[in-house]
């Protein structure tokens, strides 16, 4: 049996593994740094205290436990040795007959990596809980101070980047401060919160029709978000940001401005584009290596006749994963491979509690109906029935009460003794006390 | 209006704040290091991947938002200056007319604090997710290795301390490895997991009737847990533990062997007992300071005629919090204070999915009915209706499928660039790329 190695348990890898596992015609190993599949489109809800991490993530091992030929390992892929047909990983080298890469991307600062501790991005659960911690903590600090300048700084939130993530984050912060927190904080008026969405381009949601950009801008403004377009962030420090020539004192800055494809692309010996993505052929394999397939955010797939690569959004990645699996099965059955055709399912972004913008081909709509559409599609594609049920309940609860359930400020440090440098417990007493263990 | 300062948002502080807030007769400030109230009795479920942190914790601010005279601040209390009537905190000094202390306890190693990184305790959400991470990661490592010794080490779990927490933890690990993981791991037989519960005393659950200890031991053994009594842990290192004279190779060690009352007691100038608890009088105030009340794990309350202090379990803490509030209101109304009388509501511990032991006075029972009792009481007292609903659903799902929803290995580090020491992105390209922000 041929061995297919899948790197990454995102939309590409998980869907490829399911099709290959169902066929029973190949042996599959799926490796991922994490032990779970993450439903990225709802990650901003974790950052916004609307959902718990476990509601948008499911263990890869259980998702794939029904397929006897699929093995799941938690390991990090370090580099691909395409000549030798093997991948170096944190648990040793793994050889393959076919390789499927879906390692995704991480947020990128394009030469300003030192901004990361000051302005976290939103790609992982750890980052989402860090952003949640910062936002909630800023409100707590604003509540406990009487210094007006400090209070204003704590209540100023800057979101950098006007794509889908930036729009969804800033809308949620605006709504949270206006409604969720309005009765909880007694020493501040949470409505005084200032949320600034900064976009270097001429309009937010540049991938959408200008009408929808305008509508999203109006919707954000109605939630108290200031939308600054054609403005560039020049500097970030611990007290705030410099936008163009203007200095903004802000305790919380969130980075949603750029992504960079997985570093593993560097070891493929192929050309990469400005986002670090490797170009794939029409069958999704790479030049010179028909046994290596790449999909999702890690790949630049330019449809025939088009000038630009498809963006690696969830539906594209999902279909690429399935298509890669089917092309491998074509090889096994000695049939010709097929080219990847993507029927554009459209794109959507939600703004606050009951508004969204939806665009699919020539169809465009916004407002409450768009939000319902957004809701159903996201719940439909969410992995795992139980998760779906829980997310529906969370949202129903949040919709009617404006409350957000997951408002916990959780620290990174779990140890009690080390950070506090407590005096050691007197050894003499210890003997007696041990009796009671 | 008199000012009541409450330190700690646990069962004591939250319940005192509610009664005082409802009366409208005093001004209340509640401070806590955390922004949430944690339902401690279910914390082991977070460590065992059965529940998400947000399902057993609720923001203090929203729990108390209905009381106009109650203010909530996130701050750490550092010391009490009883003479001056003020408390030093991380956000400055706060003076009071009445002080209510319910700072609880943390796990203690009694002179072996260096064991903490090797054997985490279970008192906070951070510790619970750390334990969850270690257990899940051990199974992942066992799956990816072919070295038999290493596999056995990864699959050996040692729980130190045979009280309620230790029994509940070891039972859950036993069950999880036998049922939840049995089909998920293909390269290991999770039934080979070795779980050892170590207790220095003669029997586990020493606070219960010997019959129930025996029953709990049998129930644990049926889940594959080895119960070692009259055994003391002599050493802990990164490869395992020494129990008595026996060396056990174990990747995961959990500490449930002892607690120590909050350090703030040291600043009260009172005598403390061997658990660091301060002795309180029958009205729950401390000697010489009728305006200072202490409750829960931080206090040693010896009922009249009894020889031992009540243990600071949740129902005791809850009633003490309410009683303290009522005594303060007695003072305000110029009525005499009342002594605290505790009607023993009993105690219970659950073992795995459908067994428990319950003891209330002379009533003792165990098995499935005890488990149902345990379930209803815990859900009834869980804070917040939505949380209750979610926990019921999680348990219903887990009961029928043996699945555990929150099996995420979440790391502490959220930054991508710093830990990896990536080469900086070439500055020349950066200019061009920024266009696309």
UniProtKB/TrEMBL annotation, chains A, B:
Domain of life: Bacteria
Sorted UniProt keywords: FAD, Flavoprotein, Membrane, NAD, Oxidoreductase, Transmembrane, Transmembrane helix
The enzyme's E.C. designation: 1.6.5.9
One of the record's GO molecular function terms: NADH dehydrogenase (quinone) (non-electrogenic) activity
Parts of the chain that traverse the membrane: 363-382
Enzymatic class: oxidoreductase
Keyword Oxidoreductase in annotation: yes
Ranges of residues in domain FAD/NAD(P)-binding: 3-309
Entry's family note: Belongs to the NADH dehydrogenase family.
PANTHER family: EXTERNAL NADH-UBIQUINONE OXIDOREDUCTASE 1, MITOCHONDRIAL-RELATED, NADH DEHYDROGENASE
Name listed for the protein in its UniProt record: NADH:ubiquinone reductase (non-electrogenic)
Native source species: Desulfobotulus alkaliphilus
Taxonomic lineage of the native organism: Bacteria, Pseudomonadati, Thermodesulfobacteriota, Desulfobacteria, Desulfobacterales
